[in-house]
Amino acid sequence: MSRGQAMQRVAEGAFEDMLSADRFKAAFRNHPAGVAVVTADPGDGPVGLTASSVISVSANPPLLVFSLSAYSSAAPALARAETVVVHLLGADHVHLAKTFATAGIDRFADNDSWSRLVTGEPVLAEAPTWLRGRIVQRMEAGDSTVVAVQVLQVQTPEPEETPDPLVYHNRAWHRLGEQSVLA
To answer: What gap in Å lies between CA 175 and CA 4, rounded to an integer?
Structure first.
């Protein structure tokens, strides 16, 4: 099929018939993403999940969004939460990413690894950067929910203590560092 024919099929709506979920996932497998852990407590105990869909969308007001899969065990609780804490992970914190990506475990079993903010949300002690915010909008999108969060509070490390970022790419965890700078 030529490029022109493919574009015509897209214009006619045939593109939807051609694309499987597996092909869509394969395309994004080659798109690296930062790794975060999102935590909340809607009133019946802490929940959390690993997310590679966190992006900043506005500085004024400060807004971020993340995608919440309907298949996540944390989805029902996060659907009831009014606030969340988004922890941006460094490469030395891959164990947190793995813990919060593992189904069927108590992600908060280690009481020494987390505490509560004065506002009640669970916060991970090792996370170098976290942002606490109020959920301002939810939008159903396929089998996920896009969650918009207005950031109310931020903790960041001192510049000299900022770790290399943790990145997820092609089903593996990676470290970005000075060696990865191209320009």
So the answer is: 40
Question: Alpha-carbon distance 70 to 5, whole Å?
Answer: 36
Q: Report residue 175 as tokens.
A: 């470290």
Cβ contacts of residue 117 below 8 Å, gap of 6+? 85, 123, 132, 153
| Beta strands per DSSP E along 78-143 | 83-88, 114-116, 122-124, 129-141
Domains and CATH numbers, the chain: 1-30 (no CATH), 32-180 (2.30.110.10)
Q: How far apart are CA 120 and CA 115, in angstroms?
A: 9
**Residue 86: CA atoms inside 13 Å, Cβ hemisphere, count?**
28
Check whether the bond before 76 is cis (ω within 30° of 0). Answer: no
**What pLDDT sits at residue 180?**
87
By three-state DSSP, how is residue 94 classified? helix
Mean pLDDT by 10 residues, the chain (183 residues): 55 64 86 95 97 96 97 94 98 96 95 97 96 98 96 95 93 91 88
CA atoms within 13 A on the CB side of 16: 3
Two structure tokens written together for 37: 């852990």
Q: What is the pLDDT of residue 58?
A: 96
The secondary element (H helix, E strand) that includes residue 34 is strand 33-34
